[in-house]
Amino acid sequence: MKKRTQTLTQMAMQALSEAVAKVVEEHRRRGIPLAVWRNGRAVSISPSEAGVLRQAPAPCRIKSHGTES
Questions:
Q1: 36, 45 in Cβ contact below 8 A?
Q2: Where are the alpha helices (DSSP H) in the chain?
Q3: How far apart are the first and last CA of the chain?
Q4: CA 63 – CA 52 distance, rounded (Å)
Q5: 33: pLDDT strictly greater than 70
Q6: Domain ranges of the chain
Q7: pTM confidence score
Q8: What is the mean pLDDT of residues 35-43?
């Protein structure tokens, strides 16, 4: 069977997810709050709240620059 290759985007998302998991675990281990983005603002949450962060990432909104509507 042929091995399925991942796209660059898939590899980047996987690497990002793994990095976030490591950061959350480190914060949990040390008992320090995490900074997250909620409703357009940066907020601090306790490591115990981080389990809620396992949801699918929100889609990114790309703003166009240099054009006016």
A1: yes
A2: 8-30
A3: 50
A4: 28
A5: yes
A6: 13-54
A7: 0.60
A8: 92
